[in-house]
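Q: How would the structure tokens look for this protein?
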Amino acid sequence: MSRSTQYIGLTADGSSFVSNAISSKRFKLTEGMFGEDIDGFEYTLKSPDNPNQTLIAREEVQDEPWSSGPMIFTHLKLTSMSEDGSEKDLGYMFSWVRDSTTDGEVDYEKGFYWV
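A: Here is the predicted structure in token form.
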């Protein structure tokens, strides 16, 4: 078995949430086990509740358990931006849940993992 960095990324719900992004930009999220850059994304979305607000969803590392190398699980940190430039931290969304009943190591649809 070879060792490698395994980028898992967002849950299925998290990926669906950002699928309608107005724009996205790539940034260095972390480094893999061999020093390679692992990229993440920052998404800009329109607020579904207020057309005068923009949401910024930034992918952040949630957990990095080991399974023949680091497995990189991410979730989204949301920030609301008003027209006047004021920001409001909305916390984290679409986080993975560590669950020992998970079939296999990762269940993208349920957002569960057990490593």
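The mean pLDDT is 94.

Helices lie at 12-18.

Upvote if useful.
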